[in-house]
Amino acid sequence: MLTLVPGMRPRNLMVITMLALCHLFVGGQTLTNVAPPVPQIASIESAPGAGQPLAAVPAAQLPDDPGQEMLPVAEPEPMPPSGVPVHWEARSQSRVGDAWTLDGEVVVYYRDYVLRADRVVYHQSTSELEAEGHLQVAGGPNDVYVEASHGDMRIDMHTARFYDVHGSLGVRRAGRVAVYSTANPFLFSGRVLLQTGEGSYRVVDGSITNCRLPRPDWQLISRSIKMVNGTASTSNSVFKFLGLPIFYLPYLRHPLDETGRESGLLVPVLSNSSIKGTILGEQVYIVLNRSMDMVVGAEYYSKRGFAPNGDFRYKGPGLDHLAVRWNALLDRGVEQSDVAPVAAPAGQLPSAAGMTLVNQGGVDILAEGRKDLTPETRLAGNVEFLSSFLYRLVFNDNYALAVSSEVQSDVSLTHQHRGFIPSAAVSRFQTFASSASGDEARILHLPALRFDMLDRPIGASPLYLGMGSSVAFLGRSEPKFHARNVGRVDFYPHIALPLSAGGWSLLAEGAVRETLYSGSQIPDLLGVNNGTPTISHDPIVRSAFEASVDVRAPAVERDFSLGRWNRELRHVIEPEISYRYVGGIGSQARNVLLIDTTDIATNTNEAGFSLTQRLYSRPTVQKPCVADDPAGPECPAKPREWASWQIAQMLFIDPNFGGALIPGRRNVFDSTLDMSGIAFLTAPRNLAPVTSRLRFEAIDNLRIEWDLDYDPKAGRLGSDNIFAGYSFGRTTFGLGHALLNAIDESGSAASIIQSQQFQPFLSFGKPAGGGFNLAANGGYDFVHGSLQYAGVQAIYNWNCCGLSFGYRRFQLGSVRDETQYLYSFTLANFGSVGDIRRSNSVFRDPSLPPAY
């Protein structure tokens, strides 16, 4: 209702009323439905006046409202496809319908992929994306990286097309830095790259390589290359090296990463040896499943015959594994002289010696594995079968294995629970005295059952109780001596009392031991049987009681300041004395069959001392915990042991060991093994050899170890071993010197066996290091005055390929006189052409401990 104000003119009233009615009101447009309106088709029935409400009339037929032209039309944003979260960054962006146009340094993030381009058009409803200008795509489970001129993608279906492309698999990029997530990344280039699914690609008119682009050392060129499920496959391809086509490949399958495996033929082996002749070999690689694979092959020696070989590998959960390796030679034989040439009368030529065809072939099988049945129970073993030591000596490519005269096999089942350890084992030990057939000794445990108990407190007392016990079925055989089916029961409980006060520590122990044997031996004291004992079927019971005391005095220390070198030096002296008594066995020890270390127990009454000196060094200037942050907190300087020197000797109060010692023979007792592994006991004596153990590491990267045993009674060194090495930069060189004067036994008389060898080594770089790498080593025998072994190997590695040449020389007496010239050409992630393997490489195996 309009009310007139007194005094207001009618003219003013009219103007105010018209302004109020025609004024523009600004307000938000109201949405009644979050979904976009459904388009409707205009029809006669839906026209106004046809019985339809006004709200049902299409928007196009509504009267125009001039006031609405200035307002934006509010349209709800469509929901993105489920499961594909996408967000982006760009300098500018615009939208028309569901299509977004992004310009300028565009970065799109979707799943674990990152896309970069100059311009991107993204259709939000269909997840289609079109990109152009410096297109880059990186990420995904395979660490894919693609660079292209332009391309289009369907994000939700993992399909794409890229043009003028080059890229990689297994390379992670951080800006301009490439981080290789696999040991051998896979690189490709092509006219078009098609993605048909996640992890599935096809390169059209392209190439693949493991070398850095744009000038790779080698390439594989093909019209079509498929990359599916971690494998690249192609047909009718050409291999190019340094830009030159080398050979044609009708078909090829190749894993894309280091974990990928494909069954097929390996690279053939072509080599030469002075004793094997020309060597031609081939192997087949078979993938059994994701946890097992094997290699089966053979080599042909032109001078000797066929040599089958292979290996099997299994890797299970945790520490479960099994590896089996086998080598053999079907030797056709080599002619050797069997008699000396007959002297001819004057004026005539000597007659030729008789020749015999000697078969030096054999079989060598090695298996090693472990199976954890429960967290406390495991089955483990190391089994080797060698049919002939002569075969190993002549044909093994590894020098250390070729001269090893021992073959040991052990399989054990062990359960450990709360300090109780029951176990069962079977073992076979074989040692060869010479290359002659049958000149060997064998020791069998078939089987051995043990029950051990770790030391544990006895109630609330300071005493500890432990026990070792076993039941074994034994056998030993050697030339002219055979002890079979020998039973042994051993029971060995012991008690210990550890005490400490005022820096002193004392350990007192007492034990009883009862051992029952189903058989025994009668020693040949007069040498009637050339020193070989006689087997007796009479059982024997060995009883013993033991007592020992070990006393360690407080360590004596003194510190010195080395101001010139900003270091503190601490000198520590650690004295120790011990006493041990064993009684009850007496001369009965001579009648015990010697199988293992359980059987060499004897009476003893001995005392010993040990004096150890150590030098520790610690910097006086503390350094920051983080090297790149000088202002950060300082970490306390850690001490380092510069050197240690231990001298020890034993006094035998009972020089006859209760009557167990046999004069003029080599005697090995439990007491002597505690001091030295070198046999020295041939007569009653009171003083054992003096042992010296020196370690020196005062200079960075320099390590020296000097072990010496001196026998004061014989006035000679029992052993003198020195190992030293020094590293600087990529270079490591060192030497090893070993001297041995040990007691041997020939017949019924003890004798001295001598050995003195010198083994230098040098390495520059590593086998897989870039550029030039070199390794050399050797072994010289001063006793025989001959070079036993020498080898040198040079490697030059480019970006993704390497060339290696080597020379090796074996001279092992009259059995092996061999010269080898080795070569190898390696392509990263493909394989090697040549005859250099891990077994005959001069470079040290990186899986072994350091050489010094």
What structural keywords apply?
58% strand; 852 residues; 29-stranded antiparallel beta sheet; mainly beta
SS elements, strand count: 49
Helix content: under 10%
Please tally the helical runs, counting DSSP H or I stretches of 4 or more residues: 4
Oligomer: single chain
Quick one: overall form? Answer: globular
Task: Report the portion of residues in β strands.
Answer: over 45%
The structure class reads: mainly beta
Specify the biggest β-sheet.
29 strands, antiparallel
Kindly state the mean pLDDT as a whole number? 83
Radius of gyration: 42 Å
Low-confidence stretches: 1-8, 15-81, 174-183, 340-352
Tell me what the structure shows.
With 852 residues, the protein is mostly beta strands. Helix content is 4%, strand content 58%. The strands form 6 sheets. The chain has a 29-stranded antiparallel sheet that branches. β42 and β43 form a beta hairpin.
